[in-house]
Amino acid sequence: MSQFIQQLINGLSLGSIYALIALGYTMIYGVLRFINFAHGDVYMVGAFSGYYLGRWLINSLGMQSSVLLLVVVLVGAMIFCALAGLVIERLAYRPLRNSPRLTVLITAIGVSLFLEYSGQVFFGADPKPFPALIPDRLISFGGLTFTNKGLIVLGVTIVLLIGLTFVVRKTKMGMAMRALSFNPTACSLMGINNNVIISFTFGLGSALAAAAGILSSLNYPVITPLMGLLPGIKAFVAAVLGGIGNIPGAALGGLILGVAETMIVGYGDRIHVPPSYRDAVAFVLLIAILLFKPSGLLGKGTVEKV
Amino acid sequence: MSPCSSIAGSLTLVRQLGALSLGAVLLLSACGKGGGGASGDSIPVGEYACLTGLTASFGTASHNGVTLVMEKANASGGVLGKKIRLITEDDQSKPGEAATAARKLISRDQVVALLGEIASSRSLEAGPIAQQSKIPMISPGSTNLKVTQIGDYIFRVCFIDPFQGEVMAKFSLNSLHKTKVAVLTDVRQDYSVGLAAAYKDYFTKHGGTVVAEQSYSSGDQDFKAQLTSIKGANPEAIFVPGYYNEVGLIARQSRELGITVPLMGGDGWDSPTLTQIGGPAIDGDYFANHFSTDDTSPIVQGFVKDYRAHFQKDPDGMAALGYDAAGVLLDAMKRAGSADPQKLRDAIAATKKYEGVTGTITINEQRNATKSAKVLTIKDGKFHYVETIAP
């Protein structure tokens, strides 16, 4: 039994990382109706900016690993990626504002490949050890163990989830975002500058990706330019699972995905599923959800007028 | 003047005429097969290695070892009165690139021999090309059994996976006195699967029990699910024959789950990145390796001193293997008295008791090196010699 609970804890701490990436994914979709395939690569850029910033702070300024260091690196990487997100939006997506949706989707794949391979040129393809930003702490009781880092990831995910919901539901900017997602033309007729809202959404989404990149690297301290590939796809599945465009749904989808993966590795042998199928779990879930509840767990069904 | 260079001369003429270029290419490749590349005042030797990419730390180390040998040989007048010209191609740790690199070295540069690769999968790719062109190839570090089975032109100076697995099984039984172990395999790497199979085979035949078997795929980051299952089986040690990136993470996560038993592995652990990722979690664990800087024999200490002077750091196992691969090749060249690929092959095959820095190398009938392995342990981020285990 305690082994099962330990697996559950493992699954939740893995799932909260998926949830964190899925938040940005789903927000950009919710506002712009556009799947940003480059999101996973912004996550990678976030991890690398944190790597260089963290090393500089430790080696040149002599900062010790502490919560302060983590916060400084986290905020620094989020600002950097927000700016990167603005640049990507300005250069790659804005010229296509009035093009068919498929054009934008394919451009997103192009941006994703561009970031991955530029990363290999600038950072090098060899894996890099991520600096220890906070000291390791092990919390254990009754044979169960979890790490302070796992708790931080879960905590930050919940805080960002609440913060994001607040921004979208309660602020003027959020109201404009919802209006834009409802009808862009009417929105601009009401005197809202659509470009500002879209840039803001991209900046915010990219900052969330950076946060996910830093927190994930804290738990799994090896970073490579291709690290965003699989988490990006899984976060996309998590977002669809929870109902794409729905912010709490993305978090829920991420947690379910993490737990499902962990359980397959932990107990798959008993039902003759080898652990190497863990990555397939995400896609089996995706197919199942598209078959039985296409709008996702928390998504609202939409009636399409014909 | 060799027939080869005269053909190359007429080649430019053909190009200028702008016709028959296909015929010229055919002539050129025919010339490459003839192996006339050793003409002139230097002997071209090809090397392909992963200087960038995922396993860059392996490739650069072995390349350093090779260049050290070549520089030393050239400084003392070269071999057979000629300088060695080392031509290196980077395969970027990518599948497909190793074959291209080997092809380029053989047909364009007309090398008399090839040195490479560390990773077995890439040696398996380039090996058939060397075999077809009848150019001898010496792999410094590919331990997979299949590599030298490609053909009679393919050699290696390292030990093979079954031996490495056996060494660690012997070590866990006889030195650590552990009889209950768990095995965690990387199913995506031939290397890891082969090592795990050899380990389990020897271990269970000599009184040990494997209490849990789990697997992962290289590139995974989260191993807690596997480790939690392993913890439930209460092993006395865990055998993890993977590569350093994943092993570093596995060590961390096993300590985070409260697993305190030692981890053990093979030469895939041998990289400074291992301790950077694993940190204190990897302390007290053991792995089989080709080489140890703690070895007090004069030949090893001389190598360590030269290497430090050249590259400002300590050599690792891959550097030592690169050094020995190049050393075996030059030794064979001297004994053959010629740089003809065919004669070179025969001389390499006849290598007996070559005193290398990774041990005394004898090439056996399967073109593998028979030699002993060293077990190292990790303490405070440094590798320390524990014992030597003979075949």
Task: Please sum up the structure shown.
Chain A has 306 residues and is mainly alpha-helical.
How would you describe this protein?
Chain A has 306 residues and is mainly alpha-helical. Chain A has a domain at 20-226. Chain A is 71% helix and 4% strand. Chain A is built from 11 helices and 4 strands, in the order H-H-H-H-E-E-E-H-H-H-H-E-H-H-H. Chain A is globular. Chain B is of the alpha/beta class and 391 residues long. Chain B folds into 2 domains: 40-159 and 298-371, Rossmann fold; 162-289, Response regulator (Rossmann fold, 3-Layer(aba) Sandwich). Helices cover 45% and strands 19% of the residues of chain B. Chain B is elongated. The relative contact order of chain B is 0.12. Residues 1-36 of chain B have low confidence and may be disordered. The interface between A and B is large, with 34 and 37 residues.
Which structural class should the secondary elements of chain A be placed in?
Answer: mainly alpha
The percent range for strand residues of chain B is 15-25%
Helix-strand topology string of chain A: HHHHEEEHHHHEHHH
Average predicted confidence as pLDDT of chain A: 88
What is the number of beta strands of chain A?
Answer: 4
If strands are numbered along the chain, what order do they take across the biggest sheet of chain A? 1-4
Which structural class best describes the helix and strand composition of chain B?
alpha/beta
Radius of gyration of chain B: 22 Å
Largest sheet of chain B: 7 strands, mixed
Number of strands of chain B: 15
Please indicate the count of domains of chain B: 2
> How far do the termini of chain A sit from each other?
53 Å
CATH architecture of the largest domain in chain B: 3-Layer(aba) Sandwich
- Unreliable runs of chain B: 1-36
Helix content of chain A: over 70%
Order of helices and strands of chain B: HHEHEHEHEEHEHEHEHEHEHHHEEEEE
Mean pLDDT, all residues of chain B: 86
Gyration radius of chain A (Cα, Å) is 20 Å
Q: Regarding quaternary structure, how should these chains be classified?
A: heterodimer
